[in-house]
Amino acid sequence: MQLRIPGPTPLPDAVREALGRQMINHRGPEFAELIARVTRRLKPFFQTTNDLLLLTASGTGALEAAVVNTLSPGDRVLSVSIGVFGDRFAEIARVYGAEVVSTDVEPGRAADPAEVARLLESSGPFKAVLVTHNETSTGVTNDLAAIAEVVHRTDALLLVDAISSVGSIEFKTDEWGCDVVLTGSQKGWMVPPGLAMAVVGPRAWEAHKTARMPRFYWDFAKHRSYLERGQTPATPAVSILFALDVALDLLEREGMENIFARHRRCAERVRQGVKRLGLELFADEAHASSTVTAVKVPSDVDASRLLKLLREDGVVLAGGQGAQSGRIFRVGHLGWIDDADVDEILAALSRALPLARRMPARG
Amino acid sequence: MQLRIPGPTPLPDAVREALGRQMINHRGPEFAELIARVTRRLKPFFQTTNDLLLLTASGTGALEAAVVNTLSPGDRVLSVSIGVFGDRFAEIARVYGAEVVSTDVEPGRAADPAEVARLLESSGPFKAVLVTHNETSTGVTNDLAAIAEVVHRTDALLLVDAISSVGSIEFKTDEWGCDVVLTGSQKGWMVPPGLAMAVVGPRAWEAHKTARMPRFYWDFAKHRSYLERGQTPATPAVSILFALDVALDLLEREGMENIFARHRRCAERVRQGVKRLGLELFADEAHASSTVTAVKVPSDVDASRLLKLLREDGVVLAGGQGAQSGRIFRVGHLGWIDDADVDEILAALSRALPLARRMPARG
């Protein structure tokens, strides 16, 4: 079975074994060593020396945590959204009482740093800018370095959804000055969903002191204080931590540069392959993602029939979300994947496509 | 190793195997069947026909969910707290802007339904009453039937933390008229932490319509609407669901009545055993919990040394929390446990106790 959605991603055998480990006391010495070790080993993938906190939640929970830990109701926020997940980040801020200004980007395109700069000037000042590094719903990677550069011309905090990028695509938290960076365990980390990570920098901690959105479960300060004792405020997803510890062995053995290169190579192979099948890419190729590729569904093909045929052939891909539902399908190529997997996906696609075409109307 | 803290609890082999299953698409047909099956099979343990929602979070997240889905800032709430977890429930309501009135109960005692009735009359009206069914920090089970009876003389919602009770101790959601009931996967369910359950009744849904506390990740309505399609709003803790599905096989095979009887029997065996060792129970025996027993640490015994000696002897117990830190230790006897396990715990205690006693002062 080729599970090729943009997360959950397939689990290597060693990770599956680790998941089955017997429980331990989450307030005991073994857990304290585990969380310290995992936290320390994750940081290089974020290229950061900031605090790294583990939340028992989906990635969406981490987005909510970033908002409520740094903002107050009434704060003005710029949302650099280029798709469903960017919209979600903005909606969370709105629900908690922020006043959100959104960029307007055509689906499949990246955000234009010059347009972000223009909005920062014309509609600011903003307390924070919300940016999606890699938009999972369209398969687009934003030029975060350039966006960060224009954001830092102002005092705004930079809160980054890196859920489907960090660990698979190079991410420079400290160099880019990202104040909060978020991801989830079920992406490039090759472990099941259930654990989210939040990297919190000094300016975010400063904002936390005066931020008045209500928070309890998501409170970063509580997490940091418990982490100092090798614990979490509430009972953590222990088995996902076991798995992550082992997945980090695999990731470290391969090496960051090799991981990034493999993702770029697999993504390119997917793009070339679908084009050879006569399909059209949804995303602007200049900003095409290394972790997920969105492909336009031809007008004579039924998207759900195509996905069903593929599934019956052992390849699970994702459909479109929101406005793109039925109009695109998406190939997740992050985590445990290599060229041979890509070739299997493409072969299955070549078999399914003709069968998914609608019969031409008679007469 | 005997892991005997009040959660995480030990995992049976079949559960550990299920945890290691390969990932599936959380938006696909296999997952839809899984979540429908698990949800349906959990309801009998809550004795309910209400909606049952699965949240990817610790139990504390479920407490927060209950509050923000039913209440508005400024709402008056009665907290029937008898320990650390009751205080936590109240604190969450306070953080989100509720005006909280708290009962004052001596640690180790259950709440007095007559006192709850008095407060409801003298300090009401209240929008909701927060009750802990089983207080994990003191090993006390409240008489929820009696408390529910007095609460229902008013219009207040009844929100119940059943985290360390339901599944192990009889719980009658519908008969007692509990509007929201919460628990976590790492308790009597014999699976790892990471999944919380919320049972939501018609009056809670009614309250949800007008409740104005901000919510996104915890939104019950979003969870219900996704559940109708066999999904969750954000990526769920899939591996914990695999485990829970298998744990439910074990629980159903044993049968609810037998499970409850086994918990009562093991708890009684623990209590008799520690008393035979000359130790004193912390909780009022009339309300002693069937899932966790708190034991007073004798004045000549160092609590952390005792726990360390036990750990080195293969038995992991929990210390006291908050004001009881160093003054009590706690034995978790919920989930996968039987008489022989209790005997091993007691034998280890009998070995460790003399070694943990402080030397008498010289001269």
Outline the structure in words:
Two copies of one chain form a homodimer. The first copy, chain A, has 363 residues and is an alpha/beta fold. Chain A has two domains: 240 residues, Aspartate Aminotransferase, domain 2 (3-Layer(aba) Sandwich), CATH 3.40.640.10; 102 residues, Aspartate Aminotransferase, domain 1 (Alpha-Beta Complex), CATH 3.90.1150. Chain A is 42% helix and 15% strand. Chain A has twelve helices and 14 strands. In chain A, the strands form four sheets. Chain A has a seven-stranded mixed beta sheet, with helices on both faces. The first copy, chain A, has a three-stranded antiparallel beta sheet with strand order 11-14-13, covered by helices on one side. In chain A, a hairpin with a 4-residue loop joins strand 6 and strand 7. In chain A, helix 3 crosses helix 4, helix 5 runs parallel beside helix 6 and helix 11 packs across helix 12. The first copy, chain A, is globular. Chain A starts with a strand and ends in a 7-residue tail after the last helix. The mean pLDDT of chain A is 97.
